[in-house]
Amino acid sequence: MGSLPERYLVIPLVQGRVSKATVAPLIDRIRSRATGWSGKMLSFQSRVILIQSILTSLPIFNMAIYKWPMAAIKEGEIIIRNFLWSGDPAKKKLLTVKWDTSKVLKQRRSSHSIQKKSSIWTGLKEAIVSVKANSKWIIGSGKDIDFWRDYWGSDVAITEILDINPDIWKHCKAKLSQIIHQNTWAAPPEIVEFLATLGIDLKNITLNNSDKDIRVWKHCSHGNFSVQSAYHQISSHRPKVWWFKYINNKAILPRIASFTWKVCNNVLATEDNLRKRGLNMASRCSLCRCNLETSDHLFWHCPMSIQTWDWMASLFCIQAGFSNLQSSLEFCTQLSSYIADIWKAAVLKLIYFLWRARNDAFLEGITFSPNDIKRKICFAVKDAAGLSGNCMANNCLELQIVAAWESPQKPDLCPEFRAVLGLFPGFRK
Ligand SMILES: [Zn+2]
After folding, report:
1. pLDDT level of residue 429 (50, 70, 90 thresholds)
2. 358 C-alpha to center of ligand 1: Å?
3. Same domain, 100 and 160
4. Ligand 1 centroid to residue 304 C-alpha, Å
């Protein structure tokens, strides 16, 4: 007799519920990897890439089989969060973006209603709910379909539509087969009427000729479940943020993209943000030296920044006067995609260089120089123009903008007209 292997396909086999101690070796591996990188001078963007490609992929196989206890997930998150923000897994930084864990916690609470001594049951139970909600039935005899809880007539189960005492559902155990007789609907008129009030019209639901009830995955034309379609389904439900399309652009460098992400989440270490975290300090704008330092003031209302914005807007032949990042970025919707790329890059670079100038003034006492920023933006815009794969509109305004920035021209190639000899079918000379 052979003994049970300890590992199967790299996953350790676990008996009973998965505890924090079970997954502790994996958490230790994440910690030791992150600690190994902590001495290196890595940028924020490099740390994001290391986290996405290595740290978060270490537990993937294990998590696909076992549902991790919340304490273990939190410990892993703390290691990753500290490494991301401070470069050291053991060092916490004051200004970070809070992760939205409320949903995870809620899901976990609801999964405790049935307990089994199994290492995979908790994970399976959670997946069953999503599989049920995303599948439909090809109805045969209806013996396998729960009349109340399955998604057979519409996109929601009857239990989800009716708002009644949850205790009553314990007594509702009817199968769909009770209203089907010899492959045709045989529901009493009261039931037909009741279903009609819920938006289910039995006449519109065709029955399968065979006796079998077949569950099919809604998001695939063949009805087969695939991890890819399930992933797209989950990711499409995530709320979209307005700045997503601006930072996922070929012309925007990763360093600028991650800086923009910090600006949008308001986690820059401005003096007002540090004060909110309990650090007592007198606040003064490092650029103009006469106002309170907030992100809004620094980027949009400081006389020094306004001067730079005006210069940049004049090169784009527009009137400046922006008051936030969103309105300034959305300005480019009327431009051709090439000029829009240049505009986006110029806006994001200006914000970035203003922040760098603020840090130089704050930490090293270097006086703000508008000409220095203008020179840097000119170089950066030329780079972005080279990276952009789009075309410009063939008009004087856009030619003027391109010339002002000394960027390459990328004209939209005109369609070519050629004479074609031939006759339409049915026509004779
Ligand atoms: Zn100022």
Report:
1. low
2. 9
3. no
4. 7
